[in-house]
Every structure is written in structure tokens, then in C-alpha cells.
Design brief:
Elements (H helix, E strand, L loop, with lengths): L1 H19 L13 E5 L4 E7 L10 H15 L3 E5 L6 E2 H12 L5 E4 L7 E2 L4 H6 L7 E2 L14 E8 L2 E9 L4 E2 L8 E2 L4 H14 L4 E5 L6 H11 L4 E2 L15 H7 L2 E6 L8 E4 L2 E5 L15 E8 L9 E5 L4
Parallel strand pairs: 1-8, 2-3, 3-5, 4-6, 5-7, 9-12, 12-14, 14-16
Antiparallel strand pairs: 2-17, 8-9, 10-11, 13-15, 15-16, 17-18
Bound molecules: fe (ii) ion.
């Protein structure tokens, strides 16, 4: 009895050791993180929607009507949600959002903000719902817990012009709220080093010279410096910043890492009253326009951001438009 008990303990300890060493992680090749779309004309229009903040106490039908009308007006080739789509929501709100967006018959991509997981559902619910067979237009991959990478989204979308990949859009989960100052102040997470290495692996494996653009929620620390640039000389920016920047608390080197891997610009959300696009030190940093009036918003009205990508892979600051739409 004693020997049998010892064996069970040893087997259990071995099992724990294997799990803690990543023994359960699967190996995914680069292609398994990729989705693909093609140009359908001279330009490809990406519509960024951010910080919608659907919640239990809101009139979510009204919000979704507003979003769907804006999508119909823009008629984009791709919609990208850059986080905080939900805050204190429940599963029925997630279901409703996914159905309304998918019914627009426009390809759509999704990544997470620091509030999306704060709801009456499990951590994997949103991903499972988006990846379910009932969606027809979602471009989304979540291998969290299986591949060992930080964050729920680390996928990319190749945009092809003819046979060439002109653009690669990276959808990065930049993490959640964190508390690193001994519980004194709340701070915001950062893109982890393993996620950056993952981008390098994608870029070097595909090695196609595509123009990279990144989409995530919390701005990089370099946004603070760029924010000051806007403040000192508004002519260097498109749009405006009307609140202080609240970037990641830690610099993992994403800014330089992006540039080294062909990423020319990134699009974030998080700071609801900022909507500037700043060409700073070789990387265009853009705050998307907050896309509903839920949670805080001091701008005159919410709206969306559109990014026009040209078939030759060019990407210029002048091609970024900011649009505000009256919220009835
Ligand atoms: Fe937000």
C-alpha cells in the first residue's frame, strides 16, 4: 500500500513537471497563424473600430445600430476591432455583437483590450464565440493555452495584390490591467518579448517584403513622446490628442522590433479622447477614433478610423482619414 502510494506520488510529480515545462504545448507552424484577403480594386480600405465598451447597463441595440450604419456607409474591405469592445458585459451581449457584425458580410478581425475579459463569462468565451461555425466572415485565431505564447491573439492577415502579399496586418493581444506599483496605482500591460519573437518568426519565414501594420489596444511607451510632439507642434500630426497618453508600463522593445520587421505603423485605442496619427521616428503611431459614446468620451462625437492601403504596398500618412459621425 505504501509502495503503491509512493508510485502515484512520483507519477503525479512527473506530470506536474512536464506541464510546468511546457510539455503540453503544441507546435504551430507560421501558416497556422495566417489569414488572407485580396485587393478588389485600386485600394483596400480598413475600418478600425475601437473602445466600444458594450456593457450590461447600456442600450446595446442602439450602439450596434450605430456601428452597422457606419459600416454600411464606409463599405470597407476589412473591419478591425482594437480592443475594449466589451466591459462588464455578459455572454448574451457577446453573442449579439458577433451576430450583428458577422451579418454585415464584411471580413472582420478582432483583438482584445484591457477590459474585454471583465464580464460574466470565461476567459475563452469571446474567442470561442468568434471562432464558432456560425460566423462566416470572422478572421480570427486564438491559440492561447496551446502554443505557449503570451496573449490570446498573435495572428496575421496577408493582403494580396495579384500574386504578391502587399500588406501584412498583425493582430496582437497587448494584455490587461496590471498592478506593478505595490497596488498603489493601476497600470497597463505590454506586448511581451515572446510575442515580438513570434512576429520575427513570421516575417523571416514568409520573407515577402510585405508592408507591415500592427493592431493592438494599449499604446507603446513611445506614444508618450510622440504625444508631446503633437502638443508642441500640431502640424506634425493628423487629428488631435485631448487627454494624456496612458501607454504600457514597460518597454519590451516593440517599437524598434516593429521597424526591424517591416512594420510601418500601428493602430491602437485605449485613450478615448485621443485620435492623433503621428509620424514619429520611422513609425506611424495612430490612435483610432473611439467608436461609441459608452464609458468616457469628451470628444464632440464618436466615429471610426479608415486606412486606405494601395496596391503597390505604399502607406502614407495622408491616406489616413478620421471620421466623426453624429450619435443620435
Ligand atoms: Fe477603452
Amino acid at each position: 500500500m505504501k509502495n503503491k502510494y509512493t508510485k502515484i506520488l512520483l507519477l503525479s510529480a512527473l506530470n506536474i513537471l512536464l506541464v510546468s515545462c511546457g510539455g503540453t504545448n503544441k507546435t504551430f507552424d507560421v501558416a497556422s497563424y495566417g489569414k488572407e484577403l485580396s485587393f478588389t480594386g485600386d485600394s483596400f480600405k480598413v475600418m478600425q473600430l475601437t473602445d466600444i465598451h458594450l456593457t450590461k447597463s447600456a442600450d446595446n441595440i442602439k450602439v450596434m445600430d450605430y456601428l452597422v450604419n457606419n459600416i454600411k456607409t464606409v463599405n470597407p474591405n476589412l473591419i478591425v476591432f482594437t480592443g475594449d469592445t466589451f466591459m462588464n458585459a455578459d455572454s448574451s451581449i457577446v453573442d449579439y455583437f458577433v451576430k450583428r457584425i458577422d451579418d454585415c458580410n464584411v471580413p472582420w478581425a478582432y483583438t482584445f483590450g484591457n477590459h474585454d475579459f471583465q464580464g460574466d463569462y470565461g476567459e475563452n468565451y469571446i474567442s470561442q464565440r468568434i471562432q464558432s461555425t456560425s460566423t462566416k466572415n470572422a478572421l480570427f485565431i486564438d491559440n492561447y493555452g496551446e502554443d505557449g505564447l503570451s496573449g490570446h491573439t498573435n495572428y496575421y492577415i496577408n493582403i494580396k495584390s495579384g500574386t504578391d502579399v502587399a500588406y501584412r496586418l498583425y493582430m496582437i493581444d497587448g494584455g490587461n490591467d496590471v498592478n506593478v506599483s505595490f497596488g498603489i496605482t493601476g497600470e497597463y500591460d505590454y506586448i511581451k518579448e515572446d510575442q515580438l519573437q513570434h512576429i520575427t518568426k513570421i516575417n523571416t519565414t514568409l520573407n515577402d517584403g510585405a508592408t507591415g501594420l500592427a493592431f493592438f489596444h494599449i499604446p507603446l511607451l513611445e506614444m508618450q513622446t510622440a504625444w508631446n510632439t503633437c502638443k508642441d507642434d500640431a502640424t506634425k500630426c493628423i487629428g488631435k490628442n485631448e487627454e494624456k497618453s496612458c501607454p504600457s508600463y514597460k518597454n519590451s522593445g516593440a517599437f524598434e522590433h516593429f521597424k526591424a520587421n517591416g512594420i510601418k505603423g500601428y493602430f491602437c485605442g485605449h485613450d478615448h479622447d485621443n485620435y492623433a496619427s503621428i509620424d514619429y521616428d520611422g513609425l506611424i503611431q495612430t490612435y483610432g477614433v473611439k467608436s461609441s459614446d459608452l464609458c468616457y468620451l469628451d470628444l464632440d462625437m464618436p466615429g471610426y478610423t479608415t486606412i486606405n492601403l494601395h496596391s503597390d504596398g505604399s502607406f502614407a500618412l495622408d491616406d489616413i482619414e478620421k471620421v466623426f459621425v453624429k450619435y443620435e
